[in-house]
Every structure is written in structure tokens, then in C-alpha cells.
Fold argininosuccinate lyase.
Amino acid sequence: KEIKLWGGRFEESVTDAVEKFSESISFDKVLYKQDIMGSRAHATMLAHQGLMTSSDRDSILLGLDEIEKSIEAGKFVWRTDREDVHMNIEAALTDLIGEPAKKLHTARSRNDQVVTDLRLWCRDAIDNILACIKSLQLERDAGRLIDCRSRLNFCPLGACALAGTGLPIDRFMTSDALGFTAPLRNSIDAVSDRDFVLEILSANSITAVHLSRLGEEWVLWASEEFGFLTPSDAVSTGSSIMPQKKNPDPMELVRGKSARVVGDLMTLLILCKGLPQAYNRDLQEDKEPLFDSVNTIRGMLEVSTEFAQNITFNQERIQKALPSGFLDATTLADYLVNKGVPFRTAHDIVGRSVALGLSANKQLQELTLVELKSINSVFEEDVYEFLGVQNSVKKFCSYGSTGSQCVAEQLNFWVSKLEIK
Ligand code: ARG
């Protein structure tokens, strides 16, 4: 067995069970790009500060290039006995270039590496999710991620496990090189903090719940009973036993997958709940929920967007459903308010008009003026301008209301804000 990078004080190697249990390479290898970026910045800074020669730096940079290429070509061998992405890359670099590689870990620990990699990964993940949100457009969901992005963009590198270092490193230089706003101010906080993961998982959970609500509504409207919308075949699936079925399964799955995204947040909240300061190995468990949440929300957004683009609204079915349910009752109350009737009294008069309609099997607009006057003499011929759904919706004109004019204004606002052509 190869001696571990941390093997100096150990007399025995770990058992197979411990090795298998503790590894993270099976899932953290996706961080290879960020890990290599971090190492490039770190080596460049160490050379600038006189902590390695420029020729050591150059062979490190060349070695890292080669490793990156071999990973991307699918040729790199990821080793479980090298535990995680950080030690796999460092050990491979040592295999490749020898002595200079041993200087790379000067004034650096895996604790700062892992959280630096994770912040860089999250930055890209947020940009990707934002693009997906824009195709479907959920404004507040984007805002939460943008907030989170600005708070996470600080650099932990140089925390050196937890305490900082006596070596003359320049944390501002690495922070700049990696596009961070600044180095984190406190070395213990730098390796402890996973707020940014919690924030992304929270923002994703809220987005997931929105998509789930949308999914619920679309599934309901697509049902035989409602029939308000028909998804195209491209976004529907069939039944293995009922040949007639065409199901809006993608949206049922969007509703279902929201459970995972919320679960990922719960996992991380509970993971962090009992942790003391600084890095604890428990934190290795932050990655799978993070990756799962980001991948799942991206899929949910993509499929919801495609679904939205593949829906036909069945105007006729919708029109047919509108007259039932006395949707114009509130407009009728407003009519009475306009005539000077106090709202509570108007509410009661309209309630009795609805009761009359129910017993006569008539909609409100089908009640005669005589029938209406039998309830209250304030009704006049002009009442019919307020009755029926078509008339009723025209009356809504308060800011942000559902009247056609107001809806058109709202649409115009978003079309220009989102630069939709
Ligand atoms: N694989 C670890 C992780 O993903 C790296 C940190 C190792 N630090 C430690 N103290 N064992 O979190």
C-alpha cells in the first residue's frame, strides 16, 4: 500500500472498511477544475513571495496542465486510497514532476482547498441556474441566488487548516487571481463556514417549491376533468397498461423532485447543527446534497420551461367553465357599493341573489330585474353591465389587478425588463 500524504506519524495503514467509508473521491472529483485553478493561483503566489523558485512554479504549472488534460481525456486514474480530489491531484503531480510538487502544499491545507473549490464551484452553479431561471422567469428566485453569489465570493485560501501561518503568504494575491472579492477576514471562519451552501440549497428549495406548485396546477388542468390545457406529445408519456393515456409525467416528476431538493437542504442544516468551530470531517457530507440539489433544480427548470413551451390552452373548455361558480358576485357587490350601499350590506344582498340563482338554476346575469329587485330595490337596469364573466373582468382596474388592461401593462413591463423580443 502507498504511504498516505499524511502518513508520517502512522504505524499502521487504515482498514479497507475505513478507507472505503472515508473516501470522497467518488463524488468530489467533479471539483477537479476548481482544485487545479486553486493550485495554480497558490503556486504562483508562493513563487511571488519567495516560498518556491520560479522554476519549481513552472514545473508545477506544466504538471497541472498535463493532469487537467488527462482528466478531461478520461485517462486519469482516480484512486480511492488517495482519498479525495485534493490528494489525488497532488499525489499525481508528485508522480509526474517529483520534488517541486512537494512544495505546493506550503501554507495550505485541504480544509481551505475543499472550501475554496466549493465556493468556485457554487459560483458557476449559480450562473448556470440563473440562466435556467431566465428561460422560465422566476424573478425573486434569481434575486436570492444573486444575493448568495455576492456573499459567497470571498476567498478562504491561506487559512491553513484553521490558524493561518507564520509564512509570508499573500492572501490578497490568490483571492484576486481566483476572481474573489477579497480574502475571508478570519481563518477559523474561512474553514468553518458553509452558509453559502445553505443559502444555495435554501434558494433552490424555494424555487423547487414554486415549480412544484406550477406542476400541481398544470397536472390538474391537464386532467380529463379540467381539460384546460393539453401538453404536446413531446412532453408527455404514456401508460404501460392503459393505451388511451397521455400523462403530464414530467410535471408530476417536477413536483416529486422538489422533495429531494428540500431534503438536500434539511441534510445540510442538520449536518451543520451540532458542529464546533473550524473544519470537521462531517463537512465532507456537504457535497452530495449540494451537487444533487444543483443538478436536480437545473433539470426541473429545464423541463418546466420545455413544458411551458409545449402547452396548448383550450380556450373553449376554459370559456365553458367560466360561467359556473358565480365569479361575478364580487363585481356585483362593487356595483352596489358604487350605489352607496355599505359593503357588508352589499355582501348580504349579493349572497341572497346567489341563493336565488341557485334555487332557480340561473346564473346571476340570468336573473330578471324583477327578481333582483325582489331582493333589494337598489338594483337598476345598469346592473347587467356588471354581470357575466366578460363584463366582470373588465371592471378590474386597480393597480396589479386581473383586468385585461392591467394584465397587458404587467406583461409589457416584463417583456421590456427581460428584453424579450
Ligand atoms: N475530503 C475532505 C472533504 O471533502 C477534505 C478535507 C480533509 N480535512 C481533514 N481534516 N481530514 O471535506
Q: What stands out?
A: The mean pLDDT is 96. The chain has three domains: 7-106, 136-313, 322-417. The pocket of arginine is lined by residues 24, 28, 84, 110-111, 114, 279, 281, 283-284 (CB under 6 Å). The beta strands are 154-155, 182-183, 229-231, 311-313.
